[in-house]
Amino acid sequence: HRHEAGARMGVLSQADLSKFDEQHATILAVTDCESIPALDQGSEHLPKHISVVYENDARMALEALRRGEPDLVLIDLSMESYDPLRLCSAIRAFDMTRLAPLLAIASRDETRHVVRALELGVSDYLMTPIDSEELAARVRTQLRRMRHIEHLRSSFDQTLEMAIMDQLTGLYNRRFLGAQGSRLVEEAHKSGEPLACLMVDIDHFKMVNDTYGHDAGDHILKEIAARLTTSVRGSDLACRTGGEEFAIIMPRTPRESAHEIANRVLRAVSGDKVKLDDGQTLDVTVSIGVSILHEGDKLATVLKRADEALYRSKQNGRNQVTD
Ligand code: GH3
Ligand code: MG
Ligand code: MG
Ligand code: MG
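That is the input. Now the predicted structure with magnesium ion docked in place:
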């Protein structure tokens, strides 16, 4: 179990790395030569699941790389039809291809080329005549390195997502509201542009849970979160701050627009009945509090003011907007 968690966090065992070796891979060999014998089918050391594509046109090679086709590029530094060093630097210049494994092939009298190629970011090199076992080993090392990076990247993305997202609704969580909301408040103070905040709380949600069950409650939470998301702009920060409470921070939004948006949220929630898995439908409403950022306000201040407005919406009968 611990091992699995470790792998998810990006820590890989030798066995995990060996599994990478069994995955299919494509090598793009950029050379003027007809073929590189050490690479060819039947070469005893290169595994069968590694296929090789030859390209003598550097521009085509770059295109293929940008389309993400090859897993590794082999560049023949003796190429005459194109400056291979230019190709190396072009590959390293683009985000898409910056980390692509790049192996150079050089002859003994091209040491200066090799030094330059390494400066330009080539991952590794081989001297001619190429030993097929050495080539296979260097290819394997680079493919492993690349796959390890990809694994780390995706586990980092996953970890980040877990840290800032609410798992049930897919909205941002309270922690992220604290961090990103504070940044937005600071920016608003700096630019002098208005910022508005909505506090949204589902009405009588305890009764919904008690009547329809907790799973139905969860389903409704997801549905309301989706309706919130579609009612605000992409630049707005929509968070689930607690059980059935949401906060939305809206940069560049004056008071009147904030009220319009709040009313849009209200209608998006109450306008259509929510359908449960068993086919039952029910009416759901929310109460909303609106607040506007004042000079010197911290995030907590503007949130508290919205919360107080929300309380008044509840007091006044729910399913309404108050500031
Ligand atoms: P009000 O209109 O005054 O807001 O009443 P309310 O019942 O919505 O408010 P209250 O704070 O009394 O109850 C909130 C309920 O939300 C309590 C709990 O059962 C429910 N709840 C909180 N988190 C979750 C959750 O993650 N899933 C489900 N299904 N219910 C939740
Ligand atoms: Mg409550
Ligand atoms: Mg409630
Ligand atoms: Mg509540």
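The longest strand covers residues 195-202.
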